[in-house]
Design brief:
hydroxypyruvate reductase [NAD(P)H] activity; D-isomer_2_OHA_DH_cat_dom; Rossmann fold; Gluconate 2-dehydrogenase; D-isomer_DH_CS1; 12 helices; five-stranded parallel sheet; D-isomer_DH_NAD-bd
Length: 317
């Protein structure tokens, strides 16, 4: 008898068929009543975003593997999964370049005010030569500060250094000699990075230590012409402090792909601000990359169900 696997996100049909060679695949969303009926006999769960905590695990006594179709895994209780001997996997690396494209797109859009000016033209307001009130800010030869120089941070730094001739500062838990040699990146103390950078890009992982990492004090240290970009997690920023910093002119603009609550509430003041570029958490969301992520996730799943240690097993830090 094939092991039952719950698939709670949509993936390419050919990948579903690959899974079905080894598994009994049950497709459903996590908010369906049927989910609670299927989870007790499931051997595997595959998707992205489901909160796998003690409460859910207590309902899933036969679970052998939880497979995230994402690089992030803050939705998983890794301590409890390891205690129960359940594999946890993710899909790292394959999305680095695509996510870096998104982050750099936010930098460009915010600094050159592209969404704002796009709306200006489409509203029929472009009736004469534009004036200084519509000008943006250069990116090239400016200073980019990256908080979290992991693989995606490195990919952002490559675009900055080679593509836009930017000076790159970074702050990380440990020094990155390869970034310093390859990209001429300079390690900076946290506050120094905030004060010296024209663009501050948050790319660090979400941990208990990085929750609310950026708030009123940090925004006050940034340049008034500074642009803040968050490509990490929304809960790493005190969102009310970001709103105040933008309203008060403490910083010039922001580019956001993540929020404190997702989907972001329609009444969120950030959605009404011309100097904020907002995206719906689409860092890795291209057809090509999501398909590759699906391939890796399915491979992880099959390996775990076969009793093998998955290539992308996550270990509790």
């Amino acid at each position: 008898m094939k092991p039952k696997v719950i698939l709670y996100n949509q993936i390419s049909e050919d990948l579903v068929q690959q899974m079905e060679k080894y598994c009994d695949v049950v497709k459903l969303s996590t908010d369906e009543e049927r989910f609670s009926a299927e989870i007790p006999t499931a051997k595997g769960i595959i998707g992205s975003g489901l909160n796998v905590d003690i409460k859910l695990l207590n309902q899933a006594p036969e679970l052998q593997i939880v497979t995230n179709i994402s690089a992030g895994y803050d939705n998983l209780d890794l301590v409890e999964l390891e205690r129960r001997g359940i594999f946890a996997t993710n899909t790292p690396d394959v999305l680095n370049e695509t996510t870096a494209d998104t982050v750099f797109g936010l930098m460009i859009s915010a600094s050159r005010r592209m969404p704002e000016l796009d709306a200006y033209v489409k509203a029929g307001k472009w009736q004469s030569k534009i004036t200084e009130e519509h000008f943006g800010m250069d990116i090239h030869h400016k200073t980019l500060g990256i908080i979290g120089m992991g693989r995606i941070g490195m990919a952002v730094a490559e675009r900055a250094h080679f593509g836009f001739k930017m000076n790159v500062l970074y702050h990380n838990r440990s020094r990155k000699p390869e970034a310093e040699a390859y990209l001429k990146a300079e390690y900076a103390a946290f506050d120094d990075l905030l004060m010296q950078s024209d663009f501050v890009c948050l790319m660090a992982p979400l941990t208990p230590d990085t929750v609310n990492l950026i708030g009123k004090r940090e925004f006050s240290l940034m340049k008034e012409t500074g642009i803040f970009v968050n490509g990490a997690r929304g809960t790493m920023v005190v969102e009310s402090d970001l709103i105040d910093a933008l309203r008060n002119g403490d910083i010039m603009a922001a580019g956001l792909d993540v929020y404190q609550n997702e989907p972001v509430e329609a009444a969120n003041p950030l959605l009404k601000m011309d100097n904020v570029v907002t995206m719906p958490h689409i860092g890795s969301a291209t057809r090509e990359t999501r398909y590759k992520m699906g391939i890796i996730a399915v491979q992880n799943l099959i390996q775990g169900l076969n009793g093998e240690v998955p290539v992308n097993q996550i270990h509790e830090r």
